[in-house]
From TrEMBL:
Key words of the record: Transferase
Residue ranges occupied by any PTS EIIA type-4 domain in the UniProt entry: 1-120
Keyword Transferase belongs to the record: yes
Pfam families: EIIA-man
Protein name: PTS N-acetylglucosamine transporter subunit IIBC
Domain of life of the source: Bacteria
Length: 135
């Protein structure tokens, strides 16, 4: 079974999960909004992973590299537990829409991450040619 976890500082994870649910009608995405209360994040993550089957494929999405939330997920990384940081909506959407009947490969995830980077654009300087006048 494939599991999806979105974790962030404050409410980013909750908002991203809510948006993914709206766009995909997918249930089962787990969100962790860290540091909102006195919940101990390492304990919360351990209890979550303890509830999974050891063979479950887990896609962990966090807000930023080097951040405390991302660091807490690093010990759980292995060949079927994937950690992606700096998550954005295009990346999360591509990940959750991957066919459930095929394991996610490192190559597939790498491709999704690369394509998602293309959605981070400084629009003031973006010109795709569609607004140019024909003179």
């Amino acid at each position: 079974m494939r599991r999806y976890i979105i974790a962030s500082h404050h409410l980013l994870a909750h908002g991203l999960k809510d948006t993914l649910n709206f766009l995909t009608s997918m249930d089962g995405i787990i969100d962790i909004s860290a540091y909102m209360d006195d919940t101990d994040l390492p304990t919360q993550i351990k209890e979550l992973f303890d509830s999974f089957d050891p063979e479950d494929e887990v896609v962990m999405m966090t807000d930023m590299l080097g951040g405390s939330v991302n660091q807490q997920f690093c010990p759980y990384v292995n060949d079927h537990r994937h950690l992606i940081c700096g998550i954005n909506l295009p990346c999360a959407l591509s990940l959750v829409l991957q066919p459930q009947d095929m394991p996610l490969t490192a190559e597939t995830i790498r491709t999704i991450v690369e394509e998602s980077r293309n959605h981070l654009i400084y629009v003031n300087e973006y010109n795709d040619g569609s607004n140019e006048d024909d003179e």
